[in-house]
Amino acid sequence: QVQLVESGGGLVQAGGSLRLSCAAYGSTASISDMGWYRQAPGKQRELVATVSRGGSTNYADSMKGRFTISRDNAKNTIYLQMNNLKPEDTAVYFCTAQSYWRGFWGRGTPVTVSS
Is 78 exposed, middle or buried (0-12, 13-18, 19+ CB in 10 A)? Predict the structure, then answer.
């Protein structure tokens, strides 16, 4: 079993920055890719970014240049550095981890960007 613990969400003004963290516990050796998704009010859950165990990254087009995903394998933790935040970034952000037999999700951490 894999358990994901998220932190770092909160309230920020437009143009500000936040850093989200997600630590994995349990059968961490089975984890391959990890990443972040978000779900805004009235919208479907969408991909933000993913990172492989080897450090390869993938971003949604709207996040390129503002968001950076990184991974510390020694700590079993991923991060999402969010800069120049906009009101449309307001959403619940979910951490995910892909194991060999199933995927796992965190409970989500809300991010609110005031206009």
Answer: buried
